[in-house]
Design brief:
The chain is α/β, with parallel strands linked by helices and 610 residues long. The chain has helices at 16-22, 50-61, 108-117, 128-141, 150-158, 163-175, 186-189, 193-202, 204-230, 248-252, 284-289, 293-302, 315-318, 346-359, 375-384, 426-433, 439-448, 453-460, 480-487, 495-504, 507-515, 529-538, 549-553, 587-590, 595-605, and strands at 27-31, 65-67, 234-239, 261-265, 275-276, 308-311, 320-324, 337-339, 364-367, 388-391, 414-417, 436-438, 470-472, 544-548. Strands 9-6-3-2-1-14-11-10 form an eight-stranded parallel beta sheet. Strand 1 (27-31), helix 2 and strand 2 (65-67) form a beta-alpha-beta unit.
Length: 610
């Protein structure tokens, strides 16, 4: 049984009202992308009704948090963090059976055909399902059998801030072959009043359709949240920090964004060239002139669905990495600068914005404070009572012993996890990444020091055991002196490379020692590794412990494919493997897994039982 931890300090922070509502109790949970799960009733993809089965699974396993990836409308790009709206929900998650004011009898054949065309239980999502569902939803809406509802009218009037602009944006794109708004006619691009009025009249029914879908989504998501809360489970939403350049938000509020720039992230240990996401950074001065209504309204709408929310890339609220649009795409985020540029303003900038967010939402804020993190971020999150994220494989005694930190050394104000959706699963990390360095990063370090990468590559690394862009050290690189001599530099000149070596050489052995496993193993991970790692993370001092659903299910032998493929997203890549992972069993089958009792015991023993 884990030790008792005192979390009462949270009740003296600016987040105290949110903590009082949630409770300062240890909780365990699961990250489950809705596209990755399905039930026997799903039509081609998981839908809002399936959240209720996830809640039932949490009840069986002693969890009380379900974390969802962003649910916003992504158009037809299917990248959750590059959405066409930070308000609107994606219609592909609508449940036909849950539609309000609709007689489905005439459409049963259509639903059956979609289920046949998009069978469940495949390894990857077929996003053609969205177009198929939209086609049928329009057919249902256009049948004339839709009942009018005061609730719908109230929804439209109550969401005037964003709903009209969103519907217009969607219909204009539809009528312009999905062209980006920057390619529209000048009158539409600049929202010339006369042109927009004519468009509204001409396409009134199309606009009404999008508003009707958003109302249906609103009702279904609220129903799922009510079910969760009634069963002792809270929903944790993921609110993207940025929004797609081609979005209703940017089109409607062009002065709120710096359109000459693209946001991203500077080079780090994971991404040697940094990252260029493409979304425009915010123009905070202009947003402030409108009393931050854009931010406040987003939170106000999201709290209909979530009890907690994850602030994606919270460090961007202190300062965001920006890249000029003229910079070649192949350079990624290498040549950029922070906005604001002045480091002495970052802390107050972040504190001010986060305080506004806390004061305008009943949801408890959590923060994704990963990547290159300014020191002020940790201070402000602690001060405001906002949990950050502690990643097991990165919780190390960096710069000293490089050992893995004990569970009681995790931050209390954190959500502890083995991995995020942008990372490899535990099994893939153990097989392919632990004890290795990123090849591109190592190559760049060599170039900076005028060292031949090709020569030292064969001298330092076991290339037969190196896969997926990761270089595995040879066992005979016994210390940093040997390393430096093979590179041809003294230890001081080779410091950057030595630091990479110290942080990765012998990593498997250190992790096995941390888990108290008898041996680290080489190619395959020890059978007890998953259970031990999950036990350690749930024992942590962190008030929340939330794990990817496939890491929980790795306790069982459910995955019959390469663990490298068991991943939600490979950042910095455009691939059919991104955002398409589907679990190998249905939610109904998950409810009957014998391993559920093992998961429940892990949560019980760590004091996180629901």
């Amino acid at each position: 049984m884990t030790q008792n931890y005192d979390y009462s300090r949270f009740l003296q922070t600016l987040s105290r009202e949110q903590w009082n509502r949630i409770g300062t109790k240890r909780r365990s949970g699961v990250v489950a992308p809705l596209f990755a799960v399905y039930s026997s009733e799903s039509v081609g993809i998981g839908d809002f009704s399936d959240i209720k089965l996830l809640v039932d699974w949490c009840n069986k396993t002693g969890m009380s948090i379900v974390e969802l990836l962003p649910m916003n409308d992504v158009g037809f790009n299917f990248r959750p963090y590059d959405a066409q709206s930070t308000f609107a929900l994606d219609p592909m998650y609508l449940c036909f059976e849950g539609l309000i004011g609709v007689d489905l009898k005439p459409f049963k054949g259509d639903i059956k055909k979609i289920k046949k065309d998009f069978p469940l239980g495949q390894k990857r999502v077929d996003y053609g399902i969205k177009a198929a569902k939209l086609h049928l939803l329009w057919k249902i809406f256009d049948s004339g059998s839709i009942e009018s509802s005061p609730s719908f009218e109230n929804f439209v009037s109550g969401n005037n801030f964003w709903l009209q602009d969103y519907a217009l944006f969607k219909v204009i794109k539809e009528k312009n072959n999905e062209m980006t708004w920057e390619g529209w006619s000048e009158d539409l691009k600049t929202k010339k009043e006369e042109t927009i009025c004519v468009f509204k009249t001409t396409y009134a029914q199309n606009l009404l359709f999008h508003k009707w879908m958003q109302w249906q989504l609103f009702q279904q998501f609220k129903s799922a949240k009510s079910y969760a809360n009634e069963h002792g489970v809270i929903l944790l939403g993921d609110l993207p920090f940025l929004v797609s350049r081609d979005s209703a938000d940017v089109w409607a509020h062009q002065d709120h964004f710096k359109l000459m720039l693209a946001a991203g992230a500077p080079p780090d240990m994971l991404y040697s060239k940094g990252q260029r996401w493409g979304m425009p950074p915010y123009n905070w001065e202009n947003i402030k002139r409108n009393n931050f209504d854009y931010i406040v309204e987003k939170l106000k709408y999201a709290q209909n669905f979530y009890d907690m929310y994850r602030i994606d890339h919270v460090v961007g609220i202190f300062r965001v990495w920006t890249i000029g649009l003229s910079e070649p795409l192949e350079n990624g985020g290498l040549n950029g600068s922070f906005d604001p540029k002045e480091e002495n303003v970052w802390e107050e900038h972040g504190r001010s914005l986060l305080s506004i967010m806390l004061k305008n939402s009943s949801m408890l804020a959590c923060a994704e404070d990963l990547g290159v993190v300014p020191a002020c971020s940790y201070r402000v999150l602690e001060e405001l009572g906002i949990p950050g994220i502690d990643i097991q494989r990165w919780m190390r005694d960096w710069g000293k012993t490089f050992d893995f930190k004990k569970p009681d050394e995790y931050r209390k104000n954190s959500l502890a996890t083995i991995a995020t959706h942008d990372m490899s699963s535990l099994c893939a990390w153990w097989n392919f990444e632990a004890g290795t360095v990123d090849e591109e990063l190592f190559k760049r370090k060599c170039t900076e020091k005028n060292v031949s990468f090709e020569n030292v590559k064969t001298a330092l690394f076991d290339l037969r055991a190196s896969q997926h862009g990761r270089l595995r050290w040879k066992n005979n690189i016994s210390d940093q002196g040997v390393l430096a001599s093979r590179i041809g530099l003294d230890e001081h000149a080779a410091k950057d490379i030595v630091d990479l070596y110290k942080g990765s050489f012998g990593e498997k052995e250190k992790f096995a020692k941390f888990l108290r496993l008898d041996q680290a193993g080489n190619e395959a991970y020890p059978p007890m590794l998953v259970a031990k790692a999950l036990q350690k993370i749930t024992e942590s001092a962190s008030i929340f412990s939330v794990q990817l659903i496939h890491d929980w299910l790795s306790l069982d032998s459910l995955f019959d494919f390469d663990p490298w493929e068991l991943r939600i997203n490979f950042p910095g890549t455009l691939s059919e493997k991104n955002w398409t992972l589907i679990l190998p069993i249905s939610l109904e089958d998950m409810l009957e897994l014998p391993v559920n009792e093992v998961i429940k015991k892990i949560n019980h023993d760590s004091g996180r039982i629901n």
